[in-house]
Design goal:
Elements: E1 6-13, H1 19-29, H2 47-52, E2 59-65, E3 68-74, H3 82-90, E4 94-100, H4 107-118, E5 122-128, H5 137-148, E6 156-157, H6 166-176, E7 189-198, E8 202-211, E9 214-215, E10 219-222, E11 228-237, E12 241-244, E13 246-247, E14 252-257, E15 270-273, E16 292-298, H7 304-317, E17 322-328, E18 332-339, H8 342-355, E19 360-362, E20 369-373, E21 378-381, E22 393-408, H9 412-421, E23 425-431, E24 436-444, H10 452-459, E25 465-476, E26 478-485, E27 488-489, E28 495-498, H11 499-516, E29 524-530, E30 533-540, H12 556-576
Parallel strand pairs: 1-3, 1-4, 4-5, 5-6
Antiparallel strand pairs: 2-3, 7-8, 7-15, 8-14, 9-13, 10-11, 10-15, 11-12, 11-14, 16-18, 16-19, 17-18, 20-21, 20-22, 22-24, 22-25, 23-24, 26-27, 26-28, 26-29, 29-30
């Protein structure tokens, strides 16, 4: 098709502002999907996406409307998947910014707007859910004007649920979004904005062809990874796969390859032809590095191989997933897996449990630390149990994030206190309008991993939203806190914290462990310690059996004799008894209450 009749655009928004519902209405209005075949969240393929009402994997689709070819990418809205969003924006010329008329601008709205501006996209603002009783169109309109500097008449009022105003969105896309610019005669370059593994067909790439074209059967090359492959099939999604002879300049579509893993074709890489390779790859490629780590262990070691196979299969389609074997004296054999964030971790956990019928024990999530030893050697550790002897450690650096919280100004006080509690440093406060404030701050990532988001939602009555990105690694006074159960050190429970927080956290965790570890026939001590010094202790009292209950009358020495015998038995149990540690003990940090 002529380049002037192609429009490539994506939909960006905060979670639950109506991206997928608007995409459904666009598919209906353009006749891409017949109404009888239509289902809610049509582009969300996974059960988890439908249950949670969020988009986890982006989805491209081609629509025909009034002689134009409209290529839509429905992007994820969560901060964990912001790299995917940024690559999707690079594949487009325009973006529909969806803002909930009842909630207004949120943190991820701002983050996505900044990404769209950085990619120099034409932004079309859309106010969704105008039919809700709680919608405040005037107020949210002022927020959008303040954010984008647009005119009131540029903002489209839409109800994606009922279909009101959707036709105006389509007209605006044709009118305002620029057509793609490319050179069909140049050496082929195409941007990979997503890739996944199909059990029957191998790795499938979603690409935007920038220059040249890719024909079916062509020998292709990934410029960053250096992998070579064959384009077994090319085509577009409408929304099902539709094969065509070639993907032309300016088009968005898919390539079925003979590659065996998405690690050979990562998001952001450039596809070119082996016969006529491009000299310079497209800008913006970077390796996505996980920065949240957790140990995954099967409930019994007989399922270790099943877990290994399941993680192998998941990693084929998720190039951000990194894992390595881990061994624990308590939990046995398992894996330490790296994630982009807590939502990413939760999604992987649920997929492993549902799709592979696994019963998992997951340790408290941690981040990575950069450790410099007295010998000058620098190492990266992904769990507290890997920290070398403290006498050999010169300094420990932890990752810090740039955070951004959007909230009604009435809640500023409690949230500033929350940031200070997490060792955060407030940088500045700005205002979108008279009611909506933005707090920018720096904070250590480890202190935001557990219940920071829950506390934020609680303190702002659900109105606050949070976005962050990694800034740098900073040397801090960090210590390893070990936990002992009945005198035995449990490596899987060890954590790295700031020295000033160590005593408080040690007490909180031992109290939590006391709640989840069942009582035994003997007294069980729970201790937290730094090096050889204990900083907190709780005791679980023993079950007491009334051994004197069967005695009637007689001398009191008979009772004392039996009680002394019982006491000796309990002391022997304490020396040789084993405590069964339930799986809940390894996730107490996730539910930590300050």
């Amino acid at each position: 098709m002529d380049l002037s009749h192609i429009r490539n655009f994506c939909i960006i928004a905060h979670i639950d502002h109506g991206k997928s519902t608007l995409a459904d209405r666009l598919l209906e209005q353009t006749g891409t999907v017949e109404i009888r075949n239509m289902k809610s969240q049509h582009l969300d393929k996974m059960d988890l996406e439908r249950e949670r009402g969020i988009t986890i994997k982006l989805a491209p689709v081609r629509m025909k409307y009034k002689g134009y070819e409209l290529n839509l990418i429905d992007t994820p809205g969560h901060v964990d998947f912001s790299y995917e969003v940024s690559r999707s924006l690079n594949a487009c010329e325009g973006a529909i910014l969806v803002v909930d008329a009842s909630q207004g601008i949120q943190a991820q709205t701002l983050a996505n707007v900044y990404l769209a501006m950085a990619a120099d996209l034409e932004i079309i603002p859309v106010l969704n859910k105008i039919d809700l009783p709680a919608a405040d169109v005037e107020k949210v309109t002022r927020e959008v004007i303040g954010l984008l500097g647009c005119k009131k008449e540029d903002i489209l009022l839409v109800s994606a649920k009922t279909g009101v105003g959707v036709d105006k969105v389509l007209e605006s896309i044709i009118e305002k979004v620029p057509h793609p610019v490319g050179a069909p005669e140049k050496a082929t370059t195409a941007l990979i904005f997503d890739s996944y593994y199909d059990d029957y067909r191998g790795v499938i790439l979603y690409v935007r062809v920038v220059d040249g074209q890719i024909k079916k059967g062509a020998n292709i090359k990934m410029m960053s990874t250096g992998s070579n492959g064959i384009a077994l099939e090319v085509g577009n999604l409408a929304p099902e796969m539709s094969s065509q002879p070639a993907l032309l300049c300016g088009e968005i579509g898919y390539i079925v390859t003979n590659l065996k893993s998405t690690r050979e074709a990562r998001v952001g890489d450039t596809v070119t032809l082996q016969s006529d390779p491009a000299e310079i790859s497209l800008p913006g490629y970077k390796d996505v590095m996980p920065f949240v780590y957790a140990g995954f262990f099967p409930s019994t070691n007989e399922y270790y191989k099943t877990l290994k196979d399941a993680i192998d299969r998941l990693s084929l389609s998720d190039s951000a997933l990194q894992f390595e074997p881990e061994n624990s004296s308590v939990l046995g054999h398992g894996f330490r897996i790296g994630f982009l964030g807590l939502l990413h971790m939760d999604i992987v956990k649920q997929r492993l449990e549902r799709e592979y019928d696994l019963d998992l024990i997951i340790t408290n999530p941690s981040t990575d630390y950069r450790v410099e030893l007295t010998s000058g050697e620098k190492i990266v550790i992904k769990s507290a149990s890997e920290l070398p002897d403290v006498s050999t450690v010169l300094e420990i650096k932890e990752p810090w994030v740039n955070g951004e919280i959007v909230l009604p100004k009435d809640y500023l006080g409690p949230i500033l206190q929350l940031i200070v509690q997490r060792r955060g440093l407030q940088k500045n406060i700005s205002y979108v309008d008279a009611d909506l404030a933005i707090i920018n701050f720096d904070a250590p990532l480890a202190n935001l991993l557990t219940d920071f988001y829950d506390q934020l939602k609680s303190l702002t009555s659900g109105y606050g939203s949070f976005n962050y990105d990694i800034s740098d690694y900073r040397a801090e006074d960090l210590v390893r806190v070990d936990f002992y159960i009945a005198g035995e050190k449990v490596d899987a429970l060890a954590i790295i914290v700031h020295r000033t927080e160590s005593v408080a956290i040690g007490r909180v965790v031992t109290e939590k462990l006391k709640d989840v570890i069942p009582r035994q026939q003997f007294q069980v001590s729970l201790q937290a310690g730094i090096g050889g010094r204990f900083i907190a202790r709780e005791d679980i009292s023993a079950f007491r059996k009334d051994v004197t209950g069967s005695l009637y009358g007689g001398d009191v020495s008979r009772k004392k004799k039996l009680l002394t015998k019982q006491k000796k038995g309990k002391e022997r149990m304490k020396r040789f008894g084993k405590v069964d540690i339930p799986s809940e003990a390894f996730t107490v940090m996730l539910k930590r209450e300050e």
